[in-house]
Amino acid sequence: MKTYQIDSQPETIFFKNIERIPENDIYKNVLRILGKDKKIIIGEETDRALQFVRSCSYCGEQFEIVYDIDYGVMIHAQNLSLKVKLLNLLEGDAE
């Protein structure tokens, strides 16, 4: 998957939608890719005013997968080394 980051939001991973596919498909792909890793626990989806959020963890470090109806799919990870690990998992998936 293609990702990008914004300097003003270093804790956030955003996803490029070059193919213009439905954002829900990107969300499902993120869940599928991260769900392959046995060290990742993906929590139940909660609905927060135009956002679907899943609280997750990787080896005890917390992060969130967010599907925002207006802004698309993103991942928030306060731990920057965790963010790098997640990027490697997401960008390493060839599908």
Question: If you had to describe this structure to a student in words, what would you say it looks like?
Answer:
With 95 residues, this protein is α+β, with helices and mostly antiparallel strands. Helices cover 27% and strands 42% of the residues. The chain is built from two helices and six strands; from the N terminus they run E-E-H-E-E-E-E-H. It has a six-stranded antiparallel β-sheet, with helices on one face. A hairpin with a 2-residue loop joins strand 1 and strand 2 (9-15).
Describe the structure in brief.
With 95 residues, the chain is an alpha+beta fold. Helices cover 27% and strands 42% of the residues.
Low-confidence stretches: none
Radius of gyration over C-alpha positions, nearest whole angstrom: 12 Å
- Can you identify the CATH class? Alpha Beta
- Annotated CATH homologous superfamily: Bacterial toxin RNase RnlA/LsoA, N repeated domain
Alpha-carbon distance between the two ends: 8 Å
Largest sheet: 6 strands, antiparallel
What is the name of the CATH architecture?
A: 2-Layer Sandwich
How would you classify the helix and strand content by structural class? alpha+beta
* Number of strand segments: 6
% residues in beta strands: 35-45%
Q: What is the tally of helical segments?
A: 2
Order of strands across the widest beta sheet? 1-2-6-5-4-3
